[in-house]
Design brief:
single chain
Length: 155
């Protein structure tokens, strides 16, 4: 089974509690995916994991406020849809689950896939008035983009 990205995206958008205008909603997911694909081109990150992270990491937010376990809920949702709307090996699913669960905890990762996921999300902090800091970036491109103040020139 190959992933039908459009079908998966539409399914997640329909069930998203925050609605289409949420700062953590579908527009954010698309920017995280775009950022992640740019980082993938510069690393050995697993592209499917990064794309799935973009869709799932905030998919179970209950609101746009403080919600410390939304990433774990997104990881659980990914687990429930694995084999239904997408396929992923056990090793790659572990990466996705970890990246979703821990993405808001300010950590860095030496794993290129987890680092790409987290940097892709952090590089979209401008949407809430926060300038990303290079010290919170795990990847070379993430640090370069944060130093520049935007990932746009690197896309």
């Amino acid at each position: 089974m190959s992933t039908d990205w459009q079908r998966l995206r539409e399914h997640l958008e329909r069930q998203y509690p925050g609605g289409p205008r949420s700062i953590h909603g579908p527009d954010h997911w698309r920017r995280v995916e775009k950022n992640g694909l740019a980082i993938c081109a510069d690393t050995d990150a697993v592209e499917d994991v990064v794309r799935l992270f973009a869709l799932f990491h905030d998919s179970r937010r209950e609101h746009d406020g403080y919600d410390t376990v939304h990433g774990a809920r997104g990881a659980e949702l990914a687990g429930s849809l694995r084999g239904v709307l997408f396929e992923l090996s056990d090793a790659h699913f572990e990466l996705l689950h970890y990246a979703c669960t821990w993405h808001t905890h300010g950590e860095l990762s030496e794993d290129p896939t987890i680092g790409a996921c987290w940097d892709a999300d952090r590089l979209d902090l401008g949407r809430v008035g926060i300038t990303p800091s290079p010290r919170y970036m795990s990847t070379r491109l993430g640090r370069r983009a944060a130093k520049h103040g935007s990932i746009e020139p690197f896309l």
